[in-house]
């Protein structure tokens, strides 16, 4: 059974690929990427969500497709529709899609495009599984070095609990699902075992770095202005600030432990994630 991984050279896709290599033969894997020449060790095919006329041919002979959501905000629903239509033409039997935690209720602005994609999958007639991924811990630990330089960790999440997990945890879950058909038809809400506030994250950074790094909770517009001031594009800066506000409402919290159940072990701890970011 050939498994196609769309976006196999991306941050998540590359980790899924590594996990799959330990679960199935390399000959069963196909990397579907914009630049096939960058892939070594397995078959790679050119695959661009924005080029619908090329997608069906690239999917020929593939039974199972991992559709990793695109990273262009505002374009993803149409891009995913291109892939789903191509999958219908190519005879794909099963699509596994990376959605967002609580896609049907979240106030996070990203939720809309994910929900549209979930609807398209339901209407496609193709068997599918929805992986509603929570936040990657790296979304926050990526800011640690900047916080150390600035002397504070800033955000707009207030006392909101964030049940994030490391990207590698979500990648492992995808690989587990892709290699066992018992997961067909399921919708999984995936989040970390450990939930924390940004106050607690700042305390952990302080503990491990030996520096006092307080968390400063800011109004959404003020946080967005700071992000723009350090060079983050306006649309993305506004998004980051609004997503923090959604986190303050509990949209990034889940205590079902479904992710750790899928992968068979605890998700990466906040302590470990901070340690990795500091080293």
TrEMBL record:
Domain NAD(P)-binding, chain residue ranges per copy: 7-180
Lineage: superkingdom: Bacteria
Pfam short name (any one): NAD_binding_10
Protein name per its UniProtKB record: NmrA family transcriptional regulator
The species this protein was found in: Jiulongibacter sediminis
């Amino acid at each position: 059974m050939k498994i196609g991984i769309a976006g196999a050279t991306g941050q998540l896709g590359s980790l899924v690929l590594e996990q799959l290599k330990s679960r199935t033969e390399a000959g069963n894997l196909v990397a579907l990427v914009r630049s096939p020449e960058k892939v070594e060790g397995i078959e790679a095919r050119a695959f661009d969500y924005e080029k619908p006329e090329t997608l069906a041919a690239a999917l020929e002979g593939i039974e199972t497709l991992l559709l990793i959501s695109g990273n262009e905000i505002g374009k993803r629903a149409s891009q995913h529709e291109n892939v789903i239509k191509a999958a219908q033409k190519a005879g794909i039997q099963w699509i596994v899609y990376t959605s967002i935690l609580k896609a049907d209720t979240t106030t996070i602005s990203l939720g809309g495009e994910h929900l549209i994609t979930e609807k398209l999958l339901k209407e496609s007639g193709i068997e599918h599984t929805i992986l509603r991924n929570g936040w990657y811990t790296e979304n926050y630990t990526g800011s640690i070095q900047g916080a150390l330089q600035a002397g504070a960790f800033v955000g707009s999440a207030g006392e909101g609990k964030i049940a994030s997990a490391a990207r590698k945890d979500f990648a492992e879950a995808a690989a587990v699902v892709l290699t066992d058909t018992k997961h067909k038809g399921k919708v999984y809400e995936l989040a970390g075992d450990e939930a924390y506030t940004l106050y607690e994250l700042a305390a952990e950074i302080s503990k491990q770095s030996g520096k006092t790094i307080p968390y400063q909770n800011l109004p959404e517009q003020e946080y967005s202005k700071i992000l723009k001031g350090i060079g983050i594009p306006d649309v993305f800066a506004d998004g980051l600030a609004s997503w923090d506000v959604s986190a303050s409402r509990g949209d990034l919290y889940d205590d079902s432990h479904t992710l750790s159940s899928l992968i068979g072990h605890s998700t990466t701890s906040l302590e470990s994630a901070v340690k990795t970011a500091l080293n």
